[in-house]
């Protein structure tokens, strides 16, 4: 199976096998040009600022397209952890409330809620079964005091994909909000803002951009309109220099209320380019590519005798393919010495497939992986 795009569009793919997209993606040559454009535009003073505003608007529109949403629903901030913290600080938790998370969550989706325990908020943790978390098990933990359910669309750990749209249909009958982390899915499989309350995402993984930008998207429904952002910045409000600015302020009515100050414009120039690149190729095309390639990889891993954590069924996975391995870090380090990049740790090895990967990459990994019996 061939790659979906020419590998020469990326820096470094001519000298390595990159199966590391769940952690980082290689640099798009177009992103390099975009960041250079920012640096040159910066020297033009007010004209540079005008260009920054235009690029920011394009970036939001591209992101909105990937979310099947609207640009005004998108806030661009620094990273996913900040986005989750903003949501945590906006919900008026009271003693006796609870939050539902699961055991396949990345630490950024766990720590803010643990911090609320000192206020008497209960954190309910749903365990996985065979490296998948069932919607029924999540809903069994939801009651009249549940304020939020948080889950990743695709697990960083096992690569399993949550049917969050079905979950949301049930949660809409309750007062529990849904926070969806799409860091491991946006850019490789479809995502729909209308089927959750909040979306958070990083810029430097499947979106093919660089560090320094985070996405917070808000479904502007009646479920979230009463939330109050308690720590605004100058960009969060409608009139920064009005006559009553030392007494009061009015937040923007859209997602801009969550943007405290200027974003990292070099990151936004890169993100505007990379998201436009993804939109042009089409997420459905990317999804089809990675699912077919993932089928090849899973089959070969099982043939070799690895305990694959990622589901076989295409609708239950995306780009991450993981297998159980207590020596995952050692395996990843050994492969790195041979210019094959995977993630190893947390009791597994994870290979991540994106639009630039092909069957030759799969064959290279399988060829170099140690025999499972040697890892016991």
Automatic annotation (TrEMBL):
Keywords: Aminotransferase, Transferase. Residues 18-365 form the Aminotransferase class V domain. InterPro entries: Aminotrans_V_dom, PyrdxlP-dep_Trfase, PyrdxlP-dep_Trfase_major, PyrdxlP-dep_Trfase_small. GO terms for molecular function: transaminase activity. This is Aminotransferase V. It comes from Brevibacillus reuszeri. The lineage of its organism: Bacteria, Bacillati, Bacillota, Bacilli, Bacillales.
């Amino acid at each position: 199976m061939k790659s979906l795009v020419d590998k020469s569009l990326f820096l470094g793919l001519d000298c390595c096998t990159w199966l590391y997209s769940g952690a980082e993606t290689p640099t798009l040559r177009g992103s390099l040009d975009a960041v250079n454009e920012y640096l040159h535009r910066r020297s033009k003073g007010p004209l540079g600022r005008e260009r920054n505003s235009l690029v920011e608007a394009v970036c939001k529109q591209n992101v909105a397209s990937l979310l099947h949403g609207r640009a005004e629903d998108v806030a661009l901030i620094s990273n996913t952890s900040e986005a989750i913290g903003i949501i945590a600080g906006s919900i008026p938790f009271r003693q006796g409330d609870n939050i539902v998370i699961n055991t396949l969550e990345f630490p950024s989706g766990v720590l803010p809620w643990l911090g609320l325990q000192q206020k008497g908020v209960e954190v309910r943790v749903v365990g996985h079964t065979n490296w998948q978390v069932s919607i029924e098990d999540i809903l069994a933990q939801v009651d009249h005091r549940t304020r939020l359910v948080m889950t990743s669309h695709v697990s960083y750990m096992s690569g399993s994909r949550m049917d969050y749209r079905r979950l949301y249909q049930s949660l809409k009958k309750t007062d529990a909000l849904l926070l969806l982390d799409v860091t491991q899915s946006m850019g490789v499989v479809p995502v729909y803002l209308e089927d959750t309350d909040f979306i958070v995402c990083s810029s430097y993984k499947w979106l093919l951009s660089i560090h320094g930008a985070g996405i917070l998207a808000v479904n502007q429904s009646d479920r979230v309109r009463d939330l109050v952002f308690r720590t605004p910045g100058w960009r969060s409000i409608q009139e920064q220099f009005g006559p009553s600015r030392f007494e009061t302020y009015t937040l923007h009515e859209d997602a801009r209320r969550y943007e405290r100050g200027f974003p990292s414009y070099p990151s936004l120039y890169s993100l505007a380019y990379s998201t436009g690149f993804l939109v042009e190729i089409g997420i459905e095309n990317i999804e089809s590519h990675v699912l077919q390639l993932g089928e090849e990889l899973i089959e070969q891993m099982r043939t070799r005798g690895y305990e694959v954590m990622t589901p076989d069924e295409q609708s239950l996975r995306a780009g991450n393919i993981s297998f159980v391995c207590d020596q995952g870090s050692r395996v990843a380090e050994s492969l790195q010495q041979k210019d094959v990049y995977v993630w190893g740790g947390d009791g597994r090895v994870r290979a991540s497939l994106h639009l630039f990967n092909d069957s030759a990459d799969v064959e290279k990994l399988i060829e170099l992986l140690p025999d499972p019996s040697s890892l016991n």
